[in-house]
Amino acid sequence: MRRTTIKDLAEMLNISTSTVSRALKDHPDISSSVKLRVKEAAETFNYVPNDFAINFRKNSSKVIGLIVPEITMFFVPSIINGISAVLNKEGYHFFILSSNDSYETEKQNIQTCINSRVDGILISLTKETKDCEHLKQLEEMEIPTIIFDKTVSQNIFESVVFDNEKKSESSAKKLIDHGCKNILAIFGDENLEITQSRLSAFENTIKKTTDIHLNIIFCKSADIVKEKLDVLLKDNSFDGFFAMSDETLIGLHSSLIKRNLNDSNKKVVAISEGTLPKYLDETYEYQINDGHEMGTFAAKQLMNSIKSKKLGNPAVAHHL
After folding, report:
1. Which domain holds residue 27?
2. What pTM was estimated for this model as a whole?
3. Are 219 and 282 found together in one domain?
4. Could you tell me if 276 and 315 lie in one domain?
5. Residues 6 or more apart from 150 whose CB is under 8 A from it?
6. Are residues 154 and 225 both part of a single domain?
7. What is the C-alpha separation between 26 and 275, in angstroms, rounded?
8. Using one digit for the tens of pLDDT, what is the confidence trace for 169-198?
9. Are residues 283 and 298 part of one domain?
10. Which Gene3D superfamilies does the entry link to (predicted)?
11. How far is residue 155's CA from residue 157's CA, in Å, rounded to a whole number?
């Protein structure tokens, strides 16, 4: 059934579209009898206001575009919940676009947001994204944009990231304090800035203790972690493990279970959203990267930019 419009109601009641519009808004210039006729007709024929048209006239879509590298069971859902809590309170809607970790898809997603006349964009970059040249159009069009979690070196847009160095240093110290001497550290995609920052801080902290042997591997997925550990755990007696994310942690946990190593005196430390380790093994220690906190903060920063009609301070990188 075709959607009923104000024009349809006007033709049914033999009055002007402006009279219908004002009657629906309870305008004082419209008589009570006309208001009643219009509202009864609107209810009968399921008239729904066209929010897009209304907001277009106000030069605001009340819609935000959220672009993420991929939608996984780790971390992203909590970010979305945080964003949703803020935007719903502000009367905004948002749609989610997954770039499938493809730079070309990311560019298409940005164009989709522009074509949809979004009021602002929240974006986490793909592993293929090396710079922000493709985002300059957003700056030129004065579309407020916040880059969160996965970013690259840039001075165009405000960003919200975790304090990766601090979390990695704390994780390394936990392994040192436990007395671990042969440590395996599992990192994600080595081409990502987030991986390199965590790697540098973790490695530098471990090196301060001279009698520790550190083995480092890079794995882009939980399955690759398991594949590599099938080989490494055969010939090495590690007494400490570090996983830089929930995804690497679940691959590590699976491998330890397979070889019945989870019950031994081995220390496991991870950087995690905070939910997964509690269900895997209570002995696992972790530094929390709170996705809900990041989503909430990023959304609030975007709202501030939209309300102030400013793009924000591109020099600012907020560390949580």
Report:
1. 6-49
2. 0.76
3. yes
4. no
5. 69, 124, 125, 126, 127, 192, 193, 194
6. no
7. 50
8. 999 999 999 999 999 999 998 888 889 999
9. no
10. 3.40.50.2300, lambda repressor-like DNA-binding domains (1.10.260.40)
11. 6
Written as one string, the DSSP assignment of 185-228 is EEES-TTSHHHHHHHHHHHHHHHTSTT-EEEEEE-SSHHHHHHH
Shared domain check, 148 and 181: no
| Residue 70 sits in the same domain as residue 146 | yes
CATH number of the domain enclosing 259: 3.40.50.2300
Q: Number of folded domains in the chain? A: 3
Q: How many residues does the chain have?
A: 320
1 belongs to a structural domain: no
Which residues are CB-neighbours of 257 under 8 A, at least 6 positions away? Answer: none
CB atoms within 10 A of CB 241: 26
**Does one domain contain both 238 and 274?**
yes
